[in-house]
Amino acid sequence: MIILSYNFRGLGRGVKWAAARRLIVKHKVHLVCLQETKRENFNKSICQAISGDSTGHWDFVPSVEAAGGLLCMWNNSTFVVERKEKGRSFLMLEGTCCCNNQKLIFVNVYAPCDLVGKKALWDELRQMKASNPSGMWCFLGDFNSIRSFQERISLSQRRADPYDIAALNQWIDDMELQEIKCSGNSFTWIRPNGCVKSRLDRFLVSQNWLYLWPESCQTVLQRNLSDHCPSILQTNMVDWGPKPFMVFDWWLQQKGYQKMWSKAEGNINPKKVLNIQQKLNEVEDLTAHRNLTDQEIKDKTLLQQELWNASNAFESLLRQKSRARWLKEGDYNTAYFHKYMNFRRAYNNIPGIFIYGEWIQQPDAVKNEAAANFFHNRFTEQMHSRPTLDGVHFKSISQRQREQLTVPFSDQEIKQAVWSCGGDKCPGADGLNFNFIKEFWDVLNPEFRRFVDEFYAHESFPRGSNASFVALIPKKYHPQSLNDYRLISLIGCMNKVIAKLLSNRLRSVIDEFIDERQSAFFKGRHILHGILILNEVVEEALDSPKDSPKINFLTKEISVGRRQYS
Fold first, then answer.
1. Same domain, 128 and 224
2. CB 349 within 8 A of CB 217
3. Residues 202 and 59 in one domain
4. For residue 514, what is the DSSP state?
């Protein structure tokens, strides 16, 4: 579903009607929500001229003395409105989405400019949502408030009202709403002279909305005839290709998992848990009328065990998808796992990027630009001549230590390297993580032995064995270009094991040639140790007599340091 929110600053002229119609047709909008229409009445001809749809429906809130006003337009083929509620500053539509038969509630908002009026509107909307707290709510429009000082840039010395910011954030927390991840322009309102920019327009949705559409994204488009920018909310994002295969930990807890699993057997979801629970409740209902037979008692016991296994498996699945490593399984935090999983999906989702000043959402164009141009140039070495350290003498290891480093790897070393890795980490291109490898170690041990021997003999990986997925991790909350993403390579288990083997070998001799003053990136030492030692030296020097060598040396070093860094 695609929803448009736009503060048009008046719909009194045909020029703006045509601009709105082009925008709606271009983005194939299903629900149009306009604010500040500055009109007291709308009819079919005006709405048809704005939306370009002769079969569409509409409803509006009239303006008051050429100020304010709201308009919503939709088509019953995509969204059927069943109930409406109006206020001076909002228009609520409750209906059914035809694509999935879900009940949705949209609230088109145009908040007053004064703080008293905003608080009155927040209270009114708070009471309205309390009547249906479990509904799928979407509040959209011009809230005339920012959520932080970073959402406003001004050339003047006047700052935003902190009470206004606190009131909006408190209302969002009370309503249990979340703001949809935004892409495109960072600001939605720009003063005509360009001296002030603010983010006033936004989409706020309930948690149930994110359960259904976790990858929802709002895009702020370029400004047109208004001083506000139009915003588009998309519930179904672009398909970036099939998801890679991955082993789930709950598979390893099932009997007979070694066999080939079909899609029905290898899948766990809330419906499966509810179906088992329903069957168990049916058996429980029989006990109210008669005694159970021996077979029914056995069936009940099996259902109870099956329900327990399915519930634990579902929770394990959610924990693994949410990547919440600090929280152990068995705590029944499925709601938390859902929220964290939806947050990760929304945060890591790539709705599009700016390429040469144009917003691009096509996966092929983004992949080609990322792989062929941007990151290829980023990781291409520009300086071919490298500096040398001729004549510099470093500490070296003894002949006996060299022999210890170059002996063949033993089976015990390989097993220790595997068991020291996290169980659900490093699912490579084959989707097999360390939990799977540890479970099938008796079978996979010869393969690991052969791979390590091959690496030891040739000092390199066989061609194709280091294939991995490449992922883009956002550096900030609203990434706009490829420069806002960090490129990482998701190496597999084999690469991890080799790295562990080499690091364990180096650990036995590293104490010999690492300076004792090295305090960071070394086991048993911490970067803060240097600060603690400096504090102790300064305190001891201050307790010494003023004319002591310690005080003179410390004063001299501080003065030299000031001249160097000034």
1. yes
2. yes
3. yes
4. S
Q: Are residues 179 and 132 in the same domain?
A: yes
Cα–Cα distances (Å) from 395 to 27, 511, 512, 513, 526, in that order, read 66, 11, 8, 5, 22
Pair 547, 439 in one domain: no
End-to-end Cα, the chain, rounded Å: 59
**Which tokens go with 75?**
């088509």
Q: Are residues 150 and 114 in the same domain?
A: yes
491, 556: one domain: no
Tens of pLDDT along the chain (566 residues) come to 899 999 988 887 778 888 888 888 888 899 999 999 988 888 888 888 888 888 889 999 998 877 889 999 998 888 999 999 998 899 999 999 888 888 999 999 999 988 899 999 999 999 999 888 888 999 999 999 999 888 888 877 677 888 899 999 999 999 989 888 787 788 899 887 778 899 999 999 988 888 788 778 888 888 888 889 999 998 876 666 666 666 666 566 665 555 433 333 445 566 677 777 777 777 777 777 777 777 878 877 887 777 777 766 666 555 555 555 444 444 455 566 666 666 666 667 777 777 777 777 777 777 777 766 777 777 777 767 777 777 777 778 888 888 888 888 888 888 888 888 876 665 666 667 777 788 778 888 888 888 888 888 888 877 767 677 777 888 877 777 888 888 877 777 788 888 888 988 888 887 777 777 777 667 777 778 778 887 887 787 777 766 666 556 656 555 544 444 44
In a shared domain, residues 498 and 537: no
Q: Is residue 556 part of a domain?
A: yes
d(CA 36, CA 201): 12
In 164-267, beta strands by DSSP E: 177-179, 182-184, 189-190, 196-198, 201-206, 217-220, 231-234
Instruction: Indicate whether 354 belongs to any domain.
Output: no
Identity of residue 106: F
Q: Is residue 197 part of a domain?
A: yes
DSSP E strands: which ranges in 346-501?
353-355, 358-360, 469-474, 485-490
If one counts the domains in the chain, the total is 4
Domain presence at residue 249 = no
Phi, psi of 35, rounded to the nearest 5 degrees:
-120, 160
pTM: 0.58
| Residue 228 per-residue DSSP state | B
Give the structural domain span for 557.
529-565
Given phi > 0 = left and psi -120 to 50 = alpha, else beta, which region is 357? left
Supply 364's token pair.
Answer: 């092929």
Do both 297 and 331 map to the same domain? Answer: yes
